[in-house]
Amino acid sequence: YSSDIAYALHERGHKVTVITRSVDYKEYNNQRDGVSVYRILPTLAKYYNLPGFRHVYRQYDAYAWSVFTKLKEIHEKDHIDIIETPNLHGEAIFWQLFGPRVPVVVRMHSSSTQNRQLNNKPLNFAAKLDYWQEKLALRKANAISAVSKSVIKYNKKLVPINIPMQVIGNPLAQADMVQ
Fold this sequence. Notes:
Elements: H1 2-11, E1 16-21, E2 28-32, E3 35-40, H2 53-59, H3 63-77, E4 83-86, H4 93-98, E5 104-108, H5 112-118, H6 125-140, E6 143-146, H7 149-158, E7 165-167
Parallel strand pairs: 1-3, 4-5, 5-6, 6-7
Antiparallel strand pairs: 2-3
């Protein structure tokens, strides 16, 4: 989904940068077909091998803070015009709170809170922190996109919000998804 939107925006003349979590515990960036991709580690990843820290890291890894610091670094070099981010874990919340006033579009989908409810998992401290970050990210968004009306409906039950919302379904099925 993100890849499809990134390349569609690039094809329409926009400069696109993607920030995503590294899956191999290495940070790097590369260019692929005109799109910059930064694979970053959560802030607390460097402490993963400390005795007893693994449990803390599995609960909360401070990835949203890593996103914030990478966005700041990119913005200082090359002004950011708009940010599109998932609401899952409130990835851009620290940017929304402390970063320059750049419009943020939050892509609504199943939240970590919804996933926990559907799987009958309790809300521990980390889950409550996730919920707070997701809720605040939605409330501070300039606009919200969602993959379906049902996702909007369910998330509005969790977080009552009154922000412009647009359904953007599967981008592969929509040739004119980005005007």
